[in-house]
Write a structure and sequence with these properties.
alpha+beta; GMP Synthetase, Chain A, domain 3; flat
Length: about 400
Amino acid sequence: MGCSNCSTCDVSESRGCGTSSVFDWLYQIDGPKTENTNLLEVQFKGDRKDFYINSEDLEIKHGDWVAVQGDKSGHDIGKITMIGELVAVQMQRKKIDRDKTPLKKLYRLASDTDKEKWKSAIESEGAILEKAKRIIEEAKLEMKLSDVEFQGDKSKATFYYTAEKRVDFRELIREYSRQFGVRIEMRQIGARQESAKIGGIGSCGRELCCSTWMTEFSSVSTGAARYQQLSINPQKISGQCGRLKCCLNFELDGYTEALKEFPSSKKQLKTKIGVAKFVKLDVFKGVMYYFVPENPSAELLEISTEGVKKIIEINKKGGVPETFDEFIVDQSSSELNFKDATGQDNINRFDKKKNNRRKGGKFKSKKNKQIQKTRIKSKAKEKQKKDA
C-alpha cells in the first residue's frame, strides 16, 4: 500500500516514506533543462535525507525507489522526493558546497532483488535493536539506544544513541560487529531527535510535530513561555523529550508583536485613592490587571491598555486622577450573552425514520387500515345475519 505522496509501492509498508519538510507540488511538470536538472534528493528512514547526482542521465521520476551510492562503500535504497532546481535551493539553504564535498552518485532504479534484500534488513532491525540494548546493559554503559538503521545492501548498521557524558564504546563496536556481522556506526543524537525517532502523542492529542513534519529543531527558552504569560511549570511546558515544547516558538512572534502595543508593566499608576501595581495582562483582551496595596481586600483592577496609557500620561504631567472608575473595563459589555435554546428543536430530528411494520411483515399504511376496517364490518354483518 502506498502513501498519499507517491505511487503505490509495497516497500513503504515496511518503513514508511519518512518526514519531509518540502513537497514539490510541481513535480509532474517538466521544467527547463539547466545544470541542476540532474540533482535529486533521496529520502531514507525518518528524517534522513541526502542529495545525489544523476550522472548517467537515467530516466527517473518523483517517487521512484532507487539504489544510490552508500557511505564509504556499498549502496543504499531510498525514495526520490525532489528533482531539479528545488534541490539546488535546498542545498543552498543547508549550505552544502559541491566543490568541497562532491555529491554521491545515483546507481540505478531499485530492482526486485534490491528491494527484497532491503526489506529483510528492515524486518531484522527490531530484534537487533533489542539485542543491542541487552549488550549495553551487560557492559553497564551510561548510554541509551534509540534506533537502528540498516543500509540498503545490509552491509552497515547505524545505531542512534543518547548520552549525558562521553562514552567509550570502542569495545561495544567490536562486540556488535561480532554479533551482527556488519559494519557498525555509532551516532549520538539529542533528546529532541530521539523523541522524533521514537514518536508519540503530545498533550494536544496529535502526533508529535518532531516525528511528523519538523526537520530542524531551534532552541526554545523560558522567555518564550514568559512572553505568552504561561506559568513556568516544567510539567506543563515540557515535551516528551524532557525539553521545552517546540510549539512554544510557533506563536511567539504573534505575542511579541501584540505586546508592543502594551505600556511598560514597571510603571505604577497613581491616583488619590492609592498607587496601583501591575499583576498580569491578557494579550487577547488587551487589558492589564492592577491591585492597590492600600486596599488589599479589593478586587483586581481590569484596565484597558488605552486606559493605562492615559493614566501614565496624566502622572507624567503631574496630575493624579481621583479614582480608577473611568478607566476600568466595563465587564458587562465584554461578557458573552448566551441564549437558552432549550425546547427550540427536536433532539430526534436526525434519527432515521423506522418503517412501520407489523409482525407479519405487512405495512400499516392507510390503505391497509381501510381494508381491515371493511373486513371487520363485513364480518360483523355476517354474524348479525346468522344470529337473526
